[in-house]
Amino acid sequence: MSYILNIETATKNCSVSIAKDGQTIVCTELADEGYSHAEKLHVFIEEAIKKAGISAHDLKAVGVSQGPGSYTGLRIGVSAAKGLCYALNIPLIAVDTLQTLASQAGVKDGKIVSMLDARRMEVYSAIFNPDLTVERAIQAEIIDENSFQEYTDKLYFVGDCADKCKPVLTRDNLVFLENVKYPSAQAMSKISFDKYQKSDTVDVAYFEPYYLKDFMIAPPKKQ
């Protein structure tokens, strides 16, 4: 049996799960109190391990959300994951935040646009096929009415950008799944286990989150 602890702190959702052979058995998370990671993360980790009926020494690996996302949130999550990996001498698995978010869409057709808010009309986004293979790699972009116009099949949008993007992206083939707002550690379980089985791990000492800080610059508005 392979128990993996998954940590997701890239957004407002402070989320922790314990998975057994790729299946989530415990998930503790909170997204309604803003960025509460510093106060909640270690408490959630302890609670999840206890609820799973295991000890930290039963863990075979730690999966952590690698970004993009909140700078502070990612730092807190990665620091906690590294500390556990050092203490327990177990591998660290980096999980793409936008892939985790896309996996929560649960669609069978079209493409999934996984998107997280940056600032103003800027977003972090990537496009996935329903089997979660990458259709278009992660990038930071400014959303306008012409965004994604090269795609004629149905596009399902997930993430926390619906409020600012829906008034702009109004074509008939664009669907916003507003019930999928934040990535969850529960959805990391299968992804991290697949990586664990392939020994797809990262160096605990040198791993850094994927901040994707190079934004596009919008031209100033004319007065």
From TrEMBL:
It comes from the Bacteria. Residues 36-126 form the Gcp-like domain. It holds the Pfam family TsaD. InterPro entries: ATPase_NBD, Gcp-like_dom, T6A_TsaB. This is tRNA (Adenosine(37)-N6)-threonylcarbamoyltransferase complex dimerization subunit type 1 TsaB. It comes from Flavobacterium ginsengisoli.
